[in-house]
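Schema walkthrough. Field components (list of strings):
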Amino acid sequence: MSTKEQKERIELLQGTLDLLILRTLILGPTHGHAIAKAIEFNSDEVLQVEQGSLYPALHRLIKREWISVEEGTSENNRRAKFYRLTAKGRRQLKLETSKWDKLAGAIARILRPAEQEGKS
Amino acid sequence: MNRRKRMMDDLEHDIRDHIEIETRDNIARGMPPDDARYAALRKFGNVTRVQEETREVWSFVWLEQLLQDIRFGLRMLRKSPGFTAVAILTLALGIGANTAIFSLVNGVLLNPLPFPEPARLVTVDASKPNFPQGSISYPNFQDWHRTNQSFSFFAVSRATGYLLTGAGDADELNAAVVTSDFFPMLGVKPVLGRWFNPSEDEIGASNVVAISTALWKRKFGSAPDVIGRGITLDGKGYVIVAVFPGHFNLPNSTFDSVDIYAPLGEFANSALRNRGAGLGIHGIARLKPGVTIEQARADMEHVTHDLAEIYPDVDKGIGATLTPLKESMVGEVRPFLLLLLGAVGLVLLIACVNVANLLLVRATGRVREVALRSALGASKGRLVRQMLTESILLAIAGGALGLTLARAGTHAALAALPATLPRASEVGIDARVVWCTVLLSVCAGIFFGLVPAMRSARRSVHETLKEGGRGAIGSRRRTQGVLVAVQMAMALVLLAGAGLLIRSLAGLWTVNPGFNPDNIYTFNLALPPQMMTAPAAAIRAALRNFDAGIAATPGVEAESLTWGAVPMNGEDDTTFWIDGQPRPASDNERNWALNYIVGPDYLKAMRIPLLAGRFFSNRDDEHSQRVAVVDEVLARKYFPDGDAIGKAIHVGNRDDSYEIVGIIGHVKQWGLDVDDQNSLRAQAYFAFMQMDDSTMALVPSNTEAIVRAAGNIAGFMDSIRRTNDRISKDEVITQVQTMHEIIESSLASQRFAMMLLGAFAAVALVLAGIGLYGVIAYVVGQRTNEIGIRMALGAQRGTVLRWVLWQGTQLALAGVAVGLLAAAALTRLLAKLSLLFNVSAMDPLTFAAVAGVLLLVATAACWIPARRAARVDPMVALRYE
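Field assembly_structure (string):
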């Protein structure tokens, strides 16, 4: 279980999970549990993914042909499904990331205009 | 579907793994195993919801895309309302016609008969020389019923009529006398009262009747206490024991409107006890469970064989004919309906080809759109699917409109064609018809949409850009040309079929029926009820009174009572042997003749030519020497030496003989077309007043009469009815028909076929014309530029006009050539269905005429675009691009 306080966790925005999965897979084919762990780990466990909700998202990405699925062997030598980023998914990740950056920047400017002005 | 299942299996596997790994991680962190698993499950969340969500991902892929395609398709169709309207109307015509004909096929051929386990019902008739489905004598029926091993129920019935008196106005009612198995066999339960008892099958055993719900309502106000009440029929008292629900559709069409059912044993006729009598009694039976019709046939063969041993004089040569009930009701019209279905299918094909051509033309305007979408990543399959969705949308809209058209059309067609189609009342739009229309629409949509869609999708972006949006027009035109030629060919096939039928019918109208049908009226006459039980002398007096009254009515040229056969309207036959030759051992080894019992003015009324001797006079009555008149066929066949007059014949089982006093012309009893092919053509006439007393006793309840008017007189039958009312208020005239109506209804199936095929051919011709016009107009539009250049270079307007016309005529000629070949193969079906008369299935005149008509229409269709081309102003055309 997470060691962080419940309050500090942030619910994922709709569609953001997709982006995180794509980002995680850029490092190479990964199986479901590892993806969940990676997202948790990389966000210092701030982002709370209910692990199960990962799977519909994965299937949605397969449907859109942004990721593909293949057979593989997991760390403990078991057969498992590995998810791999496709070329289309890579393009999509790039697109989504830049979109996200713009959005995050815009929101940041709105929320902290003084700081921004102070900096410039 | 498969993919979805695979993905769901994968998911299950994944989830199991996931929770296992998480559990193990937790244990590694020091949790006790149970807590570790519980924590893993909690962290994972609701497994079922995850599965549901994932399933949703896979369920709606195609549906989402479909909805997208439909929305897009609707938008595209709205953007070109002209194209959409023409396409939908064309398809509505094609699909509607198919739905209408299919609803006939469905109601008549496919739907089971409205009785429990209808497949076990068979009709049973007596097979005799000349009549494979003849009448069963009552004694034979009783033996067949008693000794057969195959039927769980076996009933016979006979159509008859009663005069109802004492309940308002006198009313002539259609009736049927039936044996006790009749209703239980059909599974028809009385609304009130009971079935008939077997004891009531005995001759003269009872005076009970059952009435129809219609009569119950009409005459008894649906009174619940009608059971046990009295009813007076033909002047005799009966007790009502049951009310039966309305109309049965049985082979004997008179059941359609029967108001009175009585036990057959009630039928007051001494001939009922005669084993050799033919009284119009026919049977229906229900096979025992597990008994096949072949087994039943073999069984009945035994039964009839045994009877022939016991009664060799009357039962030798008598067999039983078993036919599935449905077969005997609709067997005759099956090939005919299937032919219509084929013809109407061609109309739909033509409509589809027309729409396909429209789509091809339209695709030109959409080249850029398609290129753009494919550049944006739409796969070819996706593009084809999108365009097919559009065409299926068109087809479904057309189908919906067609269904409405079909409903109206079927009603109109059935109303216009009384009594020619069995089970017509069961025809309607039911679920199967609707589903068939939906299926047909979707198939049509795919059929006419696939070629244009594939063509559009095949073109790559690269090509489109390279050719500046004009490429591949040459090959598209070729596709269109082929389609139009195919259309022309199909239209020609239908035209040829319709043309042959029109020629046949025209030929039939010129056939001499052997009499002059102009101004002849036929009707049924029922004498007042008290005559039903009167002695023969009184009946003869009443009939003479009737004859005299009618003859004195102004405008009447000649009148005759008739009994027995009526040309083209009712058959009756008799056996005879020639005086001086040994009496044949059994009835069935005797000679057969059609049997006409008529008055002295019959010849004058019918205008049949007298060839030799004399016809009957008033002196040929019950007291004088019995005489007969024969037709030329009988005279030639049985008296080849030409010495018929003065010879005598023995008729039926009577001992005395009839002297032949005259020979008259042959009448086409069996119809204008098939009379020559019938095996029974010899005709014998007997004098009405010389009828046996026992037969005369049957006359008052119902006899026929014919009257010739002295011209086309308005209100002629009204004056006949007034005369009749003056003779007696209780004397009833029913079922008035002109002789022309009778002849027309004998040609009803040919007319039905001609009207429908003609209508289909006309629709096909119009559609094919529109198709050709569309293609040629398109060619001219595409080539305006080229035409302008040619004209600028000195081409004459006439040359341009001829060039465009030639473009169209080429296609039409190709279509005609293919069509003639196809027609030659297919019109043979018409001959097979004996719809053709005196015209060969490959009649060169008809074929030449329809080819001419088609070419004419083709030329007309090309004329408008050709003139437009010839009027092209070179300057404008060159600026056009």
